[in-house]
Amino acid sequence: MTTSDVRGLEQLERAVLDDTASLASALRQCLMLAGYAHHDELRAWALKELEGYPGVDGLPLYRKVPAALEVEFALHLPGKIIQGNTRRISVVQLPQSARERGIGESAPILQGVRELEGLIAISDRLIRLGPPGSAEYVLEMTREQQQGGRESTEITALSWAIAKPSIEGVLDHVRTRLTQFVAEVRAAMPPGQQNPDPNQIDSAAQQALNITGGDGSTFHISAPHAKADRGGTASANVNEPVPATPQPWWHRTSVIWSAIAAVAAIASVVVAVVVAK
Question: Where are the alpha helices (DSSP H) in 93-152?
Answer without folding.
Answer: 96-100, 113-122, 134-147
